[in-house]
Every structure is written in C-alpha cells, then in structure tokens.
Amino acid sequence: MSDTNSQVAAGAEIRARIDTTTPHSARFWNYFVGGKDNYEVDREIGEQIKEIFPGLVDVAHTSRLFLGRAVRHLIQEQGIRQFLDIGTGLPTADNTHEVAQRAAPDARIVYVDNDPIVLTHAGALLTSTPEGRTAYLDVDLHAPEAVLEAAAGTLDFSRPIALIILNTLGHVADYDEARHVVRQLMAGLPSGSYLVISDSTATSEGMIAASNAYNASGATPYHVREVEEIAGFFEGLELVAPGIARVPSWRPDPDAPSTAAVDAYCGVARKP
Fold first, then answer.
1. Tens place of pLDDT for every residue, the chain, 272 residues?
2. What's phi and psi for 246, nearest 5 deg?
3. What 8-state DSSP symbol labels residue 168?
4. What angle do CA 159, 165, 168 make, to 5 degrees?
5. Are 223 and 170 in contact (CB under 8 A)?
6. What is the DSSP letter of 170?
7. Distance (Å, rounded) from C-alpha 214 to C-alpha 245?
8. pTM for this entry
9. Is it true that the peptide bond before 242 is cis, omega within 30 degrees of 0?
C-alpha cells in the first residue's frame, strides 16, 4: 500500500472511532471556550449545563488563562524549556507550544492524548518555531511508562521537564489510581522538573449538579474532587507560591477581572 493510501486508510479508521451521538468532553470544552469543533449533541448538553451552573463557563476560560500564566512563569522565572502536556484536548487559542515558544523559541513541547477527535486536529499542534520542536503522541494516560518512553523521542530527559495535566484527571474515576499515574509520570522526570495541574472541584452545589448532569448525558464521566484531593497530587513536591489556589487566584495578571469564586483549583510544584 502506498504512503498516500496508508494515510487515507488511517484517517478513515480515526474518523470511524468518533461518536457524534453522545457528548464528548473535548468537544464540550471546546464549545465552552468559543471553539467551532463541536456537534449539536455537545452544544445541547453545554446549554443544559449553563442553565444549571453558568459558572462552568468561567472554569473553562480561567483554566485556559492559567495555562498561559503557568507556562510563562516556568519559562521566564524557572528556566524551563520542555513541556509534556497530557490530556491536550482540541486545539484552540494560545496552545501550550504557542505560549511557550513566544517566550522561548527553543522550547520543546510534546502533546499526549488518545482521543480520535483530538488526533484529527493534531496537525494544528505540530507547528513549531525553527529553534524548537513539537510532537503529538496517541498514547493513553493510564499507561505512564509508555507516555514517558514515547516522549523521549522529542524531549531530553537529562534536563527538567514541566508535566502539564489540566482538566483531565477527573476522567480517572479512582482517586488512588489517578495519584498513582501522576506519581509514575513524575518519577520518570529528572530533578528540577515541575508538575502543573488544574481540575474542577466539588466546592459548590452548582458544580456538583453540573457534573452529575454531564455524567448522566452518556459522555465519559468526569469526577469533580475535593480541594484536599487536588493537593494530594503534589505530595512530595515543592509547591510554588501561592500553593494550591483557585485557578484565577494563581499569580493573576494585574488587570485580570475578578472571578475568585471559580470552582476549580490548581497548583504548580517542583520535583526536588
């Protein structure tokens, strides 16, 4: 089979894996941040959840802004030049490589997701400055050793790496399993590496109701956790000030609007 035919067959196989009859987390989130890569079923549950808990839109927007602040902090203040972004989601404005390479053109970024919808858009994540590199890996979060092995093709594991897992660990139903995955990933990174996590939290009745409605829709469930559980992911690491904080309150930009009540917490921490 020719390379062209192989690519066509691979594309058809990926598209066949996409289910447009039930809501999907990446498309649902894409709708909330104003993207166009979603279907009617995603917009329907999005509108339903807006009625239940409009604050989830703030979670989506402020989480994206947190990503930018965290990446810039790590580059400008900590000298990090390598990023491993797991649970990438659909490309939108200011993706990790765009933020990173604006601040440091030589930055290297590896995106990881095993979702066919994200895979179809992976080309948008593979643009890079001439000095830097980007890669996309179709690997499952539940296989941390495979993630690290594949990422070594792009990242230099003798130098610090920032592991980014935003709004993804809620898909791992068992908390102990989620912690194990994070520990395994961090264990494979060198001293001086960083962990960046944000996730929705069970800090209001509205957020809990929104989570229940989403999980009842037929989509892959997303489990909101207690703030103490978010903090547990950082055990053994050195938290960067201000520690575990609501997403908008983590090193906010001076002119940022106040959205302090957002039901999502985050943290950035260094591996000793």
1. 444 444 333 444 545 556 666 766 667 667 776 777 777 777 877 787 777 777 778 888 899 999 999 999 999 999 999 999 998 877 777 899 999 999 999 999 999 988 777 777 777 778 899 999 999 999 999 999 999 999 999 999 999 999 999 999 999 999 999 999 999 999 999 999 999 999 999 999 999 998 898 888 877 888 999 999 999 999 999 999 999 999 999 999 887 666 568 999 999 999 99
2. -60, 145
3. -
4. 160
5. yes
6. G
7. 25
8. 0.86
9. yes
Q: Where are the alpha helices (DSSP H) in 77-201?
A: 96-103, 116-120, 144-151, 175-187
Q: How far apart are CA 249 and CA 240, in angstroms?
A: 13
Distance CA 211, CA 39 (A): 20
Residue 95 tokens, joined: 């993706």
Distance CA 250, CA 73 (A): 11
